[in-house]
Design brief:
By secondary structure, the chain is an alpha+beta fold. It is 22% helix and 34% strand. The chain contains one helix and seven strands.
Length: 118
Amino acid sequence: MPLPRVLRRSVALPLVTVVILLGLAVWYVFSGYGAGLLPQSSWGPWREKSVDNWAVRVRVNSWSDAAEAYVHMGKAEDFTMEAYGTSADATTVMDGTRFTLAPGGEVTGQQPKKEGAK
């Protein structure tokens, strides 16, 4: 016996809603915005590099468009940057160096121009 028309509609709407919400959740996590929800095993190894006399450790997520960086200069100053889906910017207090971390793991640093310098 076929299902009544009212029962078919009442089953279809919640099913469509669940499919849409699940699709949005998957997009959120794997686009990079929800990278903090991904397992640790999805992150690559930490890579060391030096940017404008600052030590930088960077790792990139292999499942989504996301990267994390730990920037420090000895015990003087340190901070963490998270580029989840979009680039992250931070400026140091110590010397005013401005860092940018791209979701692909590229870190750049730019020191402020000195007064009187051309």
